[in-house]
Specification:
Elements (H helix, E strand, L loop, with lengths): L2 E9 L5 H14 L2 E6 L8 H5 L3 E7 L5 H13 L2 E5 H5 L6 H7 L1 E5 L6 E7 L13 E5 L3 E4 L4 E8 L14 E11 L2 E6 L5 H5 L3 H12 L4
Length: 222
């Protein structure tokens, strides 16, 4: 068995949290994880259970989390439990909780052009186990503009501004925006991929491979 994982899904329906959670459950089970799936944030209240996990996978866009629900997560990840996720399900989960943003490494703030923007994801680290062998690839989806922790290790990025996606960021000129990253929160490994607006984006390669490898990386205790 690769380890124990908990997937918690819910929040804004536009991100198809149930369907994305089902993809993640399948992938994790294929890789030998013992997987529990929940559709309530109260699943995070059981501190002893969280501390026994190898991986926490949030799939919850927006909404609010109470201190009673959040505190066990922060303690578990600090102690070495991994966290992995994607898109708004992890980095636009609880906008009012700064500690969540501190843990995950970033927060969504805009997606100029909205859904269907055509852009390229550029691999920045070709030696990391999550992105090794993966080549630059194109995608038509939301292009996440994020506020990002400068401590993250960027594995892939995209260029802003993008043709046809106007916005107040354009006068700043061209720059790289992280798409895939890793970081540590205490002893816990944290993995994030900003792709994944809906389940079909997650299912498409190489995004699915990146998620699969990211979960495996995050679940390994530091």
């Amino acid at each position: 068995m690769a380890g124990k994982a908990l997937i918690v899904w819910g929040g804004w329906d536009g991100h198809q949290p149930k369907e994305v959670a089902q993809v993640f459950e399948r992938v994790l089970k294929e890789d030998g994880f013992d997987v529990e799936v929940s559709d309530t944030l109260d699943a995070f209240k059981d501190e002893a259970k969280l501390m026994s996990l190898d991986l926490i996978v949030p799939v919850w866009t927006m909404g609010q989390i109470t201190n009673e629900q959040a505190a066990p997560i922060f303690k578990a990840v600090k102690s070495g439990v991994g966290m992995g996720g994607c898109h708004g399900g992890m980095c636009d989960a609880f906008r009012m909780n700064c500690e969540w943003q501190f843990m995950t490494g970033g927060q969504w703030v805009a997606h100029p052009g909205n859904d269907g923007v055509k852009y390229t994801v550029e691999i920045k680290d070709h030696d990391h186990p999550i992105t090794k062998g993966v080549k630059d690839f194109g995608v038509a989806s939301e292009q996440y503009y994020m506020h990002v922790d400068p401590a993250v290790k960027v594995l892939a990025s995209t260029k802003f501004p993008t043709s046809g996606a106007d916005g107040p960021h354009v006068p700043n000129g061209q720059f790289d925006m992280p798409v895939v990253w890793t970081k540590f929160y205490g002893q816990g490994r944290v993995f994030y991929n900003s792709l994944g607006h809906q389940a079909n984006i997650i299912e498409a390669e190489p995004c699915l491979t990146i998620m699969r490898r990211g979960f495996q990386w995050a679940a390994k205790r530091r």
